[in-house]
Structures are given as structure tokens and as C-alpha cells.
Design goal:
The chain is of the alpha/beta class and 310 residues long. The protein folds into 2 domains: 1-39 and 228-310, Alpha-Beta Barrel (TIM Barrel); 49-54 and 64-201, TIM Barrel, CATH 3.20.20. Helices cover 42% and strands 12% of the residues. It contains 12 helices and 10 strands. It has helices at residues 8-19, 23-38, 69-81, 97-106, 128-140, 159-171, 185-192, 218-224, 246-255, 259-267, 282-289, 298-307; strands spanning 43-45, 51-53, 57-58, 86-88, 114-119, 147-150, 178-181, 203-206, 229-232, 273-275. It is globular, with a radius of gyration of 20 Å. The two termini are 33 Å apart.
Length: 310
């Protein structure tokens, strides 16, 4: 089988097995494993809100036939048990099928889960946001969302109405917080100018080693305003995964983890970014969860900067 045909797990395991043939790296892996056992939980605090896991689970493709539903549900439960209890979905993921699959995971375990869903820009007029939220709650089988996001930007002239609708849902206890997704710095500035715009809890945007665009302006803006970023596609996205990179595999071998775990540890390294990788199997979820106990050294960060220039 060629390298391009390997799954991310197979490729990472083979690279790690090769690298760990060196005694010094085996010793480092044992030390990393011992540190992981006692590592504290890594969280990010939302403005005016709770501390949430720095590593959650994205659910874009779940419930749509990529894997058996039982396997995907078990993957989510595995992640929750490992501290990845933030679940991110949307009413338009599979026309609601992602939310419907999550309803089976939420049942009997709702209080352990920080639940995120989204409303689309073409649903905001009139009472559309309230109706979209009600539909999501029905599919999810719950009576509240922890966080509700506007999935894509709309014209700035509509921001006041969107925020007012979110605030009405928050007052009715249908949602506990709200935020946005895919907003630029100029759109964030406009958002903060409308009444209650400062209550925005996060901006969900793409961020990974091979997509560092937000470092130019949006990430510093969010840091200045004490607003965490939620990073989707933190492994590069379906068609541009970073996990086959040799530098990631070598660092993963030193830490006794996969290349995916190293890439995720890099995304959440600063303490103000929440990563939401998607994994449809328990095995991949376990790989991802290892990122919560990986502390990258300054030398490793320099190596990753060289391999993935900003």
C-alpha cells in the first residue's frame, strides 16, 4: 500500500514505530506517558461564561453514512469520557441528521456536555432564529443549547436584529450564550457596535498548521478583546490534512502520540483557542484526545514553524 493510501492512524503508527526504535526516543515516550497520566484538564474560559474543554468534537459529517451510526455514537461517548465534552453541530449538517445522531448521545448525559449548534444566514429574518433554534432543540432532544452561533456572516446592517434575537433566546433560557462563525476583524468591530454585541462568546473560524491566516489579524483581535477562538478543521480539513508531515510524526514519536495529537496540541497551545476536530471512530478520538496532555517544547514549536510557515 502506498503512503498516500494509508489512513491517518496507520501512517502515524508506522512513523512512530520507526522513530521509537531509537532508545532515547523510547525513553522520552515513557516520560511523556507518565506526564499524561497526571496532566491537569485543559480548558478555555468563555467571556461571562464557563470554562470549556480546549479540545472538543466537531460533528459536521456525523449521521450521514460515513460510518455506522453506532460507531459514531461510540466515538462521541469515548471523547466525552476523555474530556472532549464540547460537541459542535449545526441544523444544516446533513439537513439535521447530525443533530439527530447527537440526540442519542445526549440522552441521560446532557449535563456533562457543552452543546454548540448554529443558525444559517438565510434563517435570520422575522422570527427565523427562534424557529431555527426550536427545530434544533427538537432534533437534539434537549431544551437548551450551551452556545448558539450565526454560521456565516450577514450584512452588518442586520447584526442588531441577530443579536436581539439571540438575547431573546438567552433570556428565555433556550440558549446560554451566543457567538458567530467565519467573521472577519471588520465584521467583529461592527458587531461590537450594536447593542449587546459585546456578549459575543466566540468566533468559530478555520485554523490549523497549514491555515494560519487568522494569526495576521483576527487572533490578535480576539486576544485583545478576551474572546476565545473556536478552530474548525484544526487538522487542515478533509482535502488538506497535515497528519502525514514528517516533522509532526517525529514530534509525535517523542511524545508517544500520533501526528494528529501534535497538530491539535499546536492549535490549542496558547490557551485561547478551542479546537473541534471531527473523528468518526473511537480509535481516532483516542488519538485526538492525547493532545490534551502534550506540551510542545520551544524547540518543537520552532520546528513546526519551519515546516508550516505562517
Amino acid at each position: 500500500m502506498s503512503q498516500s493510501q494509508l489512513s491517518r492512524r496507520e501512517f502515524a503508527v508506522r512513523c512512530a514505530a520507526f522513530a521509537l526504535s531509537w532508545p532515547a526516543l523510547r525513553a522520552l515516550a515513557r516520560e511523556a506517558g507518565a506526564a499524561a497520566a497526571s496532566a491537569p484538564a485543559r480548558t478555555v474560559r468563555l467571556p461571562e461564561g464557563p470554562a470549556v474543554p480546549a479540545l472538543g468534537q466537531g460533528c459536521w459529517h456525523l449521521g450521514q453514512g460515513r460510518h455506522p451510526a453506532a460507531v459514531e455514537e461510540e466515538a462521541l461517548r469515548t471523547g466525552i469520557s476523555l474530556g472532549m465534552s464540547l460537541l459542535d453541530t449545526s441544523g444544516n449538517y446533513g439537513h439535521g441528521r447530525s443533530e439527530e445522531l447527537l440526540s442519542h448521545v445526549l440522552a441521560g448525559d446532557r449535563e456533562r456536555i457543552f452543546l454548540v449548534s448554529k443558525v444559517e444566514g438565510d434563517e435570520i429574518d422575522g422570527d427565523g432564529i427562534a424557529r431555527a433554534c426550536a427545530a434544533s432543540l427538537s432534533r437534539l432532544g434537549t431544551d437548551y443549547l450551551d452556545l448558539y452561533l450565526l454560521h456565516w456572516p450577514v450584512p452588518s446592517a442586520k447584526f442588531a436584529g441577530v443579536v436581539a434575537a439571540f438575547e431573546q433566546l438567552r433570556a428565555a433560557k433556550k440558549i446560554r450564550a451566543w457567538g458567530v462563525s467565519n467573521f472577519s476583524v471588520s465584521q467583529m468591530d461592527d458587531l461590537l457596535k450594536v447593542p449587546d454585541g459585546h456578549r459575543c462568546a466566540t468566533n468559530q473560524v478555520p485554523y490549523s498548521l497549514n491555515n494560519r491566516r487568522i494569526e495576521r489579524d483576527l487572533l490578535p483581535w480576539c486576544q485583545q478583546h478576551h474572546m476565545p477562538v473556536m478552530a474548525y478543521s484544526p487538522l487542515g480539513g478533509d482535502k488538506n490534512l497535515v497528519i502525514k508531515d514528517r516533522t509532526l510524526a517525529q514530534i509525535g514519536a517523542a511524545h508517544g502520540c500520533s501526528a494528529a495529537a501534535v497538530a491539535l496540541a499546536w492549535v490549542i497551545r496558547g490557551g485561547n483557542v478551542i479546537a473541534i476536530p471531527e473523528a468518526g471512530s473511537p480509535e481516532h478520538v483516542r488519538e485526538d484526545a492525547a493532545a490534551l496532555s502534550v506540551a510542545l517544547t520551544p524547540e518543537e514549536l520552532k520546528s513546526l514553524d519551519a515546516a508550516f510557515p505562517a
